[in-house]
Amino acid sequence: MKKPKLRELGEAIRAVIKGPYTTKFPHAPSVPPEAFRGIIIFKEDRCIGCGACVQVCPANAREIINDLTKRVRRNIHHQEVCVYCGQCVRYCPTEAIKHTQEYDLAKLKKEGYDNFVEQELAYCEICNKPFAAKAHLLWIAKKLGELAFANPTLYLTLQDDLGLTEEEAKKSAIYRTAQAERGEPGAYRSDSVRILCPDCRRRTYLNEIWGY
Q1: Average pLDDT for residues 168-189, to the nearest whole number?
Q2: Buried b (16+ CB within 10 A) or exposed e, 148-160
Q3: Are the beta carbons of 181 and 166 closer than 8 angstroms?
Q4: What confidence tens digit (pLDDT) does each residue in 163-178 have?
Q5: Contact 200, 124 (CB under 8 A)
Q6: Given CB 3.0 to 4.6 Å as the disulfide criterion, which of 2, 100, 149, 164 pairs with 38?
Q7: CA angle 52, 53, 58 (to 5 degrees)
Q8: What pLDDT digit, counting tens, does each position of 29-57 carry?
Q9: H/E segment holding residue 91
Q10: Mean pLDDT throughout 176-203?
Q11: pLDDT tens-digit profile of 89-124?
């Protein structure tokens, strides 16, 4: 390096005039760059509870829990485990997750780092088990448009959300479930036009077509 002493002298003069190149945090806020990956938050009105963020998280900082008591699906983000890689932000199909400019995560206790969003669960009308978030089914149905009418689970969920499902139809579905539990035969293909989980949908079609 040519003339190192002169370079060091120049750095010293600039430091005297401009002051040290340090931030005043925590006494004064430090403005991060625009692309800074700060604290991650949910946009609750956009989350559909699909679980894509859980699948792509390399740090296992995300978790999906079905709360059967409240009948909701809870999407949890464990901030204390997160490495802020941004994979969940990138691959969220509805852009329901975003980075903020906030970076101060320091706390005196381990609790209080989790943030979460809840979505109503969709239940199968045969096995009565939750299989998806209702918001997820609605999002798929709206994405498919008229093609959603090829799948009874999708278009029935959409019609129910629009208030187009008649109460008598719901009562009939409950009656058919009780009838099946008693081992009584129902009308031909009566189970097809119902909100079903993938397993019950497959068994229903196999039974109607092949008899098993």
Answers
A1: 54
A2: beebbbbbbbbeb
A3: no
A4: 766 654 555 555 555 5
A5: yes
A6: 100
A7: 120
A8: 778 888 888 889 999 899 999 999 999 99
A9: helix 87-91
A10: 70
A11: 999 999 999 988 888 777 777 777 788 999 999 999
* Domain 35-121: assigned CATH number: 3.30.70.3270
Q: If DSSP codes are grouped into helix, strand and coil, which group holds residue 140?
A: helix
Query: 78 by DSSP, 3-state: which?
Result: strand
- Residue 21 per-residue DSSP state: S
Reading the block at residue 103, the tokens are 């970076």
The pair of three-digit structure tokens given for residue 184, joined into one six-digit string: 């009584």
CA dist., res. 99 & res. 38, Å (int): 5
Extents of the domains making up the chain: 35-121, 124-212
**Is residue 195 a contact partner of residue 124, using CB atoms and an 8 Å limit?**
yes
d(CA 184, CA 11): 90
Residue 190 tokens, joined: 């009566």
For 71-89, b/e burial (b = at least 16 CB within 10 A) is ebbbbebbeeebebeebbb
Q: Collect all residues with Cβ–Cβ distance below 8 Å to 171 and sequence separation of at least 6.
A: none
The two tokens of residue 198 are 């993938």
Long-range contacts of 166-174 (CB under 8 A, 24+ apart): 173/125
Which amino acid, residue 189?
R
User: Please, which residues bridge with residue 133 across strands?
Assistant: 121
Separation between Cα atoms, residue 19 and residue 7, nearest integer Å? 17
